[in-house]
Amino acid sequence: MSEKKRSTWATRGTFILAAIGSAVGLGNAWRFPGLAAKHGGGTFLLVYLVAMFVMGLPLLMMEVSIARKLHKGAGECMRGVSKKMEFVGWSATANAFVIVTYYSVVFAWVLMMIFGALKFVGMTGDSEAASGVFAALTQTTWDVPHALSDWAIPIPVLIALVVAWLLMYYCIRDGAQSVGKVVKYTVFLPVLLLLIMAVKGCTMSGAGEGLARFFIPQLAAFKDPSLWIDAIGQVFYSLSICMAIMFAYGSYLEEDSNVAVDCTIIAVGDAAVSILSGIVMFSTMGGVGMLDNISASGIATAFIIYPQAIVNLTSVGWFNALFGIIFYLMLVTLAIDSAFSIVEGVSTSLADKFHTDHKKMTRAICLVAAVISLVYATRAGLAWLDIVDNWTNQINLIIIGVLECIAVGWCFSTDKVVKEINRNTTGFKMPEKCFHISIKYVSPVLLTGLFCWNMYNLFVVQNGVYGYSVGAELIAGWIVSLLVFTSGIWIRLIVKSKEKKGFKETEVVWKDAE
Q: What are residue 130's phi and psi, to 5 degrees?
């Protein structure tokens, strides 16, 4: 039976927009400014940009070029690179699935806050009331350890979650074709809204102080090792690498696509939105005299601190509420691209492996992930989300990054991959020596250092507990990570079982150009 023709991007621009949409997410809007505030503003910005182009861009090019060459999802791409390293692709896929189960709930919370912002009309100058809007809507118990067993799901949260999943499925129901139609709007709209907020922020009286803190490096901050760790982690979190997404998107590329140039545009676009988000956050917080309130916690920034700033913008309640609606609408447009791209990465990997209909696979994944996401929609959901998010991003994602570098740099060939990256470019090229050094040495060494630092911080500084009960962290942290990294074993067992019924794996072979 002949294999069904693979869907492709309608145009080169559609791929670039989709990839930028995936890369540019909530992490740009709230996590990046928070980490910048934590690490001396301009100091963090400088290190972040260096990490973006020394580590992030080569890894992005690597994933996209391998996927274009093999036209498969993450699992099959890693098998094409090295059969022994197939489990790396499935670890990335499984970790992405875990992430989307809670990212969807964050998306739902942001949807709710568009309507919650209407309450800002009557809260002019009342910071305490504004900070309580999110808690009132979600009925969250916050992160109180003993409240982890409160499984009640508020009806408004449930409705918002259903809407979130329906929107996500609608965007990716037909793979590259439906995604291409959506990203024309969801990539440009948040940039437009950010520009509106930046203009407002920069015209406020205290904006200059905020912008100075954001752009001017503080030399003393360079001594803090956590600066480098947070900057590298933010690059991975922001670019959507090591999450199966870019393998999926790269697999839809035509053979004549220019990976070197397109990926550079994606990385520059991602960094530009991060900087624009920093301008919005620092100018606005400076304008309302709350520069010291910016938090490294994205949840706290978006749902507690920023509402406080919004109600202090002007003495006109309706204007503050309108600004709040624009802010949360911007977050919605950022969140939806990232959310549906994660599902796309997972569905592409599984559909390619088991030769199933992509649309049916997407539907099944959405249903299963939606059921699991109910855990985070409960009153204790924020606490469970905090644990899972810490493990998936601070531990799993970093290990996957190291393993991908080992797979390509030591089990395959960086020379073959960089030639694939530069195959269709006549002008700008990825320097072969730089790519080789980054993938084979710099990235795995720095990522291993990041992992070791996280383990030191967890077991030495925090005595082995992140802040919750040992049982909760065992279930939502270590067991989830174990399932992620053993996912390749489960896939092999399913394949063996299906082979008894006549199933046959597709051969995935890297054929060098003659």
A: -65, -40
